[in-house]
Automatic annotation (TrEMBL):
Hydrolase is among the record's keywords: yes
Family matches, as SUPFAM superfamilies: E set domains, Six-hairpin glycosidases
Organism from which the protein derives: Flavobacterium cellulosilyticum
Name of the protein described by the UniProt record: Glycoside hydrolase
Gene3D superfamilies: 1.50.10.10, Immunoglobulins (2.60.40.10)
Domain Cellulase Ig-like, residue spans: 293-376
GO biological process, one term: polysaccharide catabolic process
One Pfam match: CelD_N
One function term, GO molecular function aspect: cellulase activity
Domain Glycoside hydrolase family: 458-793
Keywords: Carbohydrate metabolism, Hydrolase, Polysaccharide degradation
Family: Belongs to the glycosyl hydrolase 9 (cellulase E) family.
Domain of life: Bacteria
Length: 859
């Protein structure tokens, strides 16, 4: 009798088989309880819908500058959440941002036949494809039609892709032809290396992969493939079925190539075939009679006792408004008791939802509260006198220090980054189209030759946003705003140690100097370096390679920090220099716009720095006057308009003259300003009102009286502009969120209230903060990281791959997907239009928070 020999591998295989069968049984049991979607209907907004599902077909196009923003093609809004995007003919298994995108030639909405037809074109390959989407059964059919066969160079490469948001599917399951798998939390599928000669070029010949000179690139390999795929069978809210008539559907994990990659379902288009070449049947599950939960918008920071308090309730169109809501307060015995009950008033429809308002301004007692609406209750918030005292501290204490370029930044046990970009910088090459909007024209407008080193530039400045470039106009905006905060409120908080000599920053360590003056100094140092070493302010300074630009983590590792030496080979170093061409490039085409605006910022900084750094203060004023004069001369013969800013030059001289007058009190600047301001207000009241208001304390009574008339017009305009939404603030409908516009609008309102309280009351200021702090569409999270009881958990900072935030950053907020969908993901940080914090937005927020605090102190 033979003995049965069982190895550890046998046990594992038995367990794995049992596990797969168990998962498969569970999945099919779940599927048997799922009722797939009701019939889709083409609505008047030109997308398909049924209760619980919207299917958009190129309602939004790919972006010519940023390429694939994951907001185009066939997309799902599935039970209120956008989970699927990028349904289109693509040329890669898992497209990265800068891979080629198709241009939409036409989009035909056929209401008679209940279909949408789109023609896409890849210009580089003279390749057109037609995509027709038509409802069928409880789902829809996607047909790809070709008039000409796939070009030879795209055979085996052109395919139809559909991308699934990882955070909606990770740790769930998929079934491919009956085989069960799990969507991994972290990418771990297979890749392979191929020669670069086989790669389809990316934008303008750039390359996202640092191949170390080996002429290779990475290709993702499929996790699974088959004809029948089911996504998330265990989760009725996310279940999607895909069936392919003609081609295998492969499943990929795009995160192997890029942290912002998605799961991709893909079928290769057949070669040597025309007509209908691919058919997918797609069936997203819809929960019967599904309704989106109400979103109760309110300030996560809270309210002052005397402040108006209006919660805005966002409702599914199929939901009924509950007629009353209540306010509960924490009592002394630790229990919450009802303190107020009031009517909920219907506001009406706005875009895709219905809205109601709950006014609880009558609640004035200090304490801790929550709102009860129907079965929902919010998280708690406060009503206190000094609610705005410290809401700006994380922005100044943490976010701005972390953004400081050319400095080592430490926080307690953590080093945010070492000293970056000590190899700054090289002159950008001629006639070069770069990424992120940078371009160099046919001349350098400097004394430097292309790729020649520009000395003295490794000083000062801030990283513009979640990337690591220096954008000069953003610096100008920050410096102007910080000077306004200093002069208006004398914010003398000291919580940061900043040493320019050793280029070291230590967060939460006071050093005896006001942080805001140290930040003004830091920004000015880079502007001064530009003017002194380059000859004028520049568009920006950015790394030359895409494989650097998408860098995440420690900024000091984005370059080797060694000056470029052309006599050395790439990746070779003599210890003092390097043959690696990774030094940032300065894009130097000159513009009167930047000259004027930089002159204004330096003039303003000169005032703030006087008494703190007198030498730098004096230098700022000299450079400001010189720049202003040079800009005047250049504007006469249009020699300074070779940059993307040339269209914005009008009015910039007025801004510079105002700041120069405020600093010098010289009549020539005052006269110049007064000669410009009235026509400027007539041409662009919204854009120039802030300048008009800033000048009031330095002008006579007749000036103030004349501006009063414009303030009345301004109020009428903003009342009209904000009447279209229930939040009573300007809500922008674009891909980049409008938080900054809400903040800057509230700042103008502050100045109007300060000088003309008869025109605007304080509530016009508080509304802006309420919106930023949570009273906005989509969610009620605070858009300021780590401020308020509930704030953003993820943001597009340099640590975005860790799915976290940098405290104090202000996210753009709500990106708009045409025709009617606002979105702000808090599980996916990689949407920069929603989640990327920028330096000028942070500076404006610091001002607004201090403005609100000042108003609060004036009873």
């Amino acid at each position: 009798m033979r003995k049965l020999k069982i190895t550890l591998l046998d046990v594992f295989n038995l367990n794995r088989t049992f596990l797969n069968k168990t998962i498969l049984f569970f999945c099919f049991f779940s599927l048997s309880n799922i009722s797939f979607s009701q019939n889709l209907v083409l609505n008047e907004k030109e997308y398909f819908e049924t209760q619980g599902l919207n299917v958009l077909v190129f309602s939004n196009e790919y972006n010519g500058m940023f390429f694939d923003e994951k907001t185009a093609g066939v997309e799902f809004i599935h039970h209120g959440v956008r989970t699927v995007t990028g349904g289109a003919v693509r040329l890669h298994n898992t497209p990265e941002q800068w891979d080629l995108i198709p241009k939409m030639l036409s989009r035909k909405v056929d209401k008679a036949n209940n279909s949408i037809e789109v023609i896409l074109r890849y210009e580089d390959f003279d390749f057109d494809s037609k995509m027709i989407v038509t409802p069928k059964g409880k789902g829809f059919v996607i047909n790809v039609v070709l008039d000409k066969p796939v070009p030879k160079e795209l055979e085996g490469r052109a395919g139809f892709n559909m991308e699934f948001l990882p955070t909606s599917y990770v740790e769930g399951n998929y079934i491919v032809d009956g085989r069960v798998g799990t969507f991994p939390r972290y990418p771990a599928s297979n890749t392979e290396i191929k020669p670069s000669s086989q790669k389809i070029p990316q934008f303008a010949g750039h390359n996202t992969f640092d191949d170390r000179g080996k002429n290779e690139y990475i290709v993702t390999l499929p996790i699974e493939s088959g004809r029948n795929l089911i996504f998330a069978p265990e989760n009725p809210e996310r279940t999607v079925k895909i069936q392919s008539e003609d081609q295998e559907v492969m499943l990929f994990d795009g995160r192997n190539l890029a942290q912002n990659g998605w799961f991709v379902a893909r079928s290769i288009l057949p070669s040597n075939k025309t007509g209908k070449v691919l058919t997918w049947y797609v069936e997203p599950n819809v929960i019967p009679n599904w309704k989106r939960e109400p979103v109760i918008g309110f300030s996560q920071v809270g309210y002052m006792p005397t402040q108006n308090k209006v919660a805005v309730i966002e409702l599914d169109l199929n939901d009924k408004v509950v007629t009353t809501a209540s306010i509960f307060k924490l009592s002394e015995d630790g229990k919450f008791v009802e303190k107020f009950k009031g009517d909920v008033k219907v506001w009406g429809n706005y875009l895709r939802y219905n809205y109601a308002q709950f006014d609880f301004s009558a609640v004035k007692e200090k304490g801790l509260y929550y709102i009860q609406y129907g079965n929902q209750k919010t998280n708690t918030f406060q009503i206190e006198d000094h609610i705005y005292d410290n809401v700006w501290h994380p922005t100044m204490d943490v976010w701005f220090p972390v953004q400081m370029d050319h400095m080592e930044v430490n926080e307690a046990y953590r080093v945010w980054h070492g000293k970056p970009f000590l190899d700054d910088c090289l002159q950008a090459p001629l006639n070069h189209e770069h990424f992120d909007g940078y371009k160099q024209g046919p001349t350098t407008d400097t004394k430097y030759k292309p790729l020649e080193r520009i000395p003295g530039m490794s000083v000062g400045g801030w990283f513009d946003a979640g990337d690591f470039d220096i954008q000069t106009f953003s610096h100008v905006s920050v410096i102007n705003s910080f000077v306004e905060s200093w002069e208006e409120f004398k914010v003398n908080r000291d919580e940061t140690y900043i040493d320019q000599k050793t280029q070291y920053v230590d967060i939460h360590r006071p050093d005896g100097q006001p942080d805001i003056l140290q930040q003004i100094e830091h920004g000015v140092l880079n502007l001064v370096a530009q003017v002194e070493n380059i000859g004028h302010p520049v568009r920006g300074i950015v790394v030359p390679n895409l494989h650097q630009y998408h860098h995440l983590g420690d900024a000091s590792t984005e370059t080797d920090n060694l000056p470029y030496n052309s006599s050395l080979k790439p990746y070779e170093s003599d210890g003092l220099s390097s043959g690696t061409l990774d030094d940032r490039w300065a894009f130097t085409n000159r513009s009167s716009f930047l000259d004027y605006r930089t002159a204004g910022a330096l003039a303003a900084a000169s005032r703030a720095l006087k008494g703190y750094n007198d030498e730098l203060s004096a230098k700022c004023l000299v450079l400001a006057k010189n720049l202003f004069n040079e800009a005047n001369e250049g504007a006469k013969d249009k020699k300074l308009d070779n940059s993307p800013f040339s269209d914005y030059s009008r009015g910039s001289d007025m801004v510079a003259m105002l700041q120069l007058y405020l600093t010098t009190k010289e009549d020539q600047y005052k006269t110049g300003f007064l000669n410009k301001i009235w026509n400027s207000l007539d041409e662009n009241l919204k854009g120039n009102m802030n300048s008009a208001l800033l000048a009031i304390p330095y002008m006579d009574d007749s000036y103030k009286a004349k501006v009063h008339d414009y303030a009345l017009k301004y109020k009428a305009n903003i009342d009209k502009e904000t009447s279209d939404n229930p939040y009573a603030v300007p809500v922008l409908k674009r891909s980049w969120g409008g938080s900054s516009q809400v903040i800057t609008g509230a700042i103008v309102n502050y100045y109007i209230h300060k000088f003309y309280p008869d025109v605007l009351d304080k509530e016009y200021v508080y509304r802006g903060l309420n919106f930023i702090f949570g009273c906005h569409p989509y969610s009620n999270l605070s858009f300021v990281n780590a401020v308020g009881n509930r704030s953003k958990k993820v943001a597009y900072g340099n640590n975005r791959a860790d799915f976290t935030t940098i405290a104090g950053g202000v996210v753009p907020g709500l990106s708009f997907l045409k025709p009617d969908f606002f979105e702000n993901k808090d599980d996916w940080p990689f949407f920069w239009g929603q989640n990327e914090c920028i330096i000028d937005g942070g500076a404006w927020y610091v001002f607004l928070a201090n403005a609100a605090n000042e108003l609060a102190e004036k009873k």
